[in-house]
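Sequence, please.
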C-alpha cells in the first residue's frame, strides 16, 4: 500500500510539473499527500501489532489460569 502511494506521489509530481505548477505548490500538495498516507499506514500497522499483542496476552493468561489449582482458578475467573 505504501509503495503504491509513493508511486502515485511521483506520478502526481511529474504531472503537476508538466502542467507548470510552481515548486511551492507541488511541495505543499506532496506534503499533504504523504502526511495522509503515513497516517493511514501507521494506523494499519499499529492495529496489526496491537492485535498480535492482545492474542499473546490472552494466551499467556489462559496458560496461567490453567496452571492454578481448579478452585483458585474459579475464584479468579469470578472476579474478572
Amino acid at each position: 500500500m505504501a509503495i503504491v502511494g509513493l508511486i502515485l506521489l511521483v506520478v502526481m509530481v511529474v504531472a503537476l510539473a508538466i502542467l507548470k505548477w510552481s515548486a511551492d505548490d507541488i511541495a505543499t500538495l506532496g506534503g499533504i499527500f504523504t502526511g495522509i498516507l503515513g497516517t493511514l499506514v501507521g494506523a494499519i500497522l499499529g492495529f496489526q501489532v496491537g492485535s498480535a499483542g492482545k492474542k499473546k496476552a490472552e494466551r499467556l493468561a489462559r496458560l496461567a489460569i490453567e496452571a492454578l489449582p481448579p478452585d483458585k482458578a474459579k475464584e479468579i475467573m469470578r472476579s474478572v
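Residues 2-79 form one domain.
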